[in-house]
Amino acid sequence: MSVSSNISSSVSQLFERTYGRLKKDNNIALIQSFTGDLADGISHELCTDLEVQLAELSLQKRSLKRTFSIVIEGLQNMRMHGEFDDEGKKIVQYLFFQKQNILHFRFSNLILKNERASLEDYVKTINALDKNGLKQKYLNRMSNGVLSANGGAGLGLMTMSMKSEHPIRISFDPLSEKLVVVNLDLELVP
Q1: What is the CA radius of gyration of the chain?
Q2: Phi and psi angles of residue 37, each rounded to the nearest 5 degrees, phi first
Q3: pLDDT digits (tens, 9 = 90+) for 63-103
Q4: Are 181 and 94 contacting, i.e. CB atoms less than 8 angstroms apart?
Q5: Of 139, 168, 149, which is closest to residue 73 (Cα–Cα)?
Q6: DSSP three-state, residue 83
């Protein structure tokens, strides 16, 4: 088995286990999910489908807007900052589900192992800020932010945190010598 198929196989197995755990939990209502190559157009299709799914939830307008913001930013973050596997695919997993009246979001994608520490520190920094501090950091970054090589200024994670009003939980799954899977988990109380 080649290295590339080992990575693809490992990612697939990891994502299948995560999805399987959710499906087995009777307290979870899976609203939307995607596992696979985040090729062009997929994000748009997911957002279009999300409109239909959210209509069935009967959420208040504020919660609808917050949900859309979290999903759009999460998908965009995976698309812009996720790494390709050895087969040239941007393999991701996005899960949106409800458990005990709380909306949960999980965004998982590949990143370079050497980016792990800086991403973890950035999430810790965001999580340590109160609502006003986060807003000020966001406005400052908007005004003075330097764009990364991928074209981002670090606003996506801040937006997700502001809309969620809860800390972002971050975890990592080892994958290879150069790649890890990053998992970002958020909650939203409608």
Answers
A1: 17
A2: -80, 120
A3: 999 999 999 999 999 999 999 988 889 999 999 999 999 99
A4: no
A5: 168
A6: coil
